[in-house]
Amino acid sequence: MNTQHETPSGWHHFGVCSTCGFSPGRRLFTGALLAAGATSAWPAPPPAREGVDVGKRSTFTKFVSAEQIEQAATQQYLQMQRQAAQQHALAPAEHPQVQRLRAISQRLIPYTYEWNERARQWKWEVNLIGSKQINAFCMPGGKIAFYYGILDQLQLNDDEVAMIMGHEMTHALREHARERMGKTMATRGAIEVGAAIFGLGGVGRMAADMGGQLLTLKFGREDESEADLVGLELAARAGYDPHAGVTLWQKMAAANKKAPPQFMSTHPSGPTRISDIEKNLPKVTGLYARAEKPAQKFGPPKAKAANG
Q: Structure pTM?
């Protein structure tokens, strides 16, 4: 996130009593203050922020109500849960991998607030779907789901799970879905844009229509880069080794060679992805070194035997 430097609004004028050596109305400049042993009137610049820098969120998000997007996401998430439960594919709370995912999420969530103040009010949820798909997502409002296949087939360790979770959280924190909808609204003319700004008319219908698309929404390369880097920082601050960002995408690339996983259809890969992560590791290694490490270690599902 960008920080703003404070600057003084102007020089101060000081009045003088009869015993002072200053004339009424004379300006007291910084040099005079320092000569007298006082401190500078200029505020010290804020310390540089440690971590990654991905700039400000897109201005297109202003065209669509965050509340409406989050409401649509919640409805779609509940529908997904009901369908999974009907198919006996929604893992119960006592499932070891559900406990693992929720424990990791609880470590990451406190570090999301800096990236989006709304995250403090989100009702974060994490669920596990019994499917062989290599996939995971986080919908607007903090609605997270992992598919069993991504944990099982890639045999992800806790650090790698944290990288995926941080990546998915970032899509919600940076409001990438809201940005895409805002861009669409901005192309529909001034009347509909005006309605979008005030949360009226067409934008409400659009949010409802988009609810069903939130699960398969494809983000652009810039969005993916943001998700990689911010996710890297979130995980590092939470005590997970950021170097796992490299091993994760190596595993993902290997899986993609065999048969493109569903995850890759919504998360385009490129030759520079791992390189970009490696370039940004120095920005977060200090955060990881100082972070409190998880007291409990989990692990991936037990790999099946080759003839099993």
A: 0.75
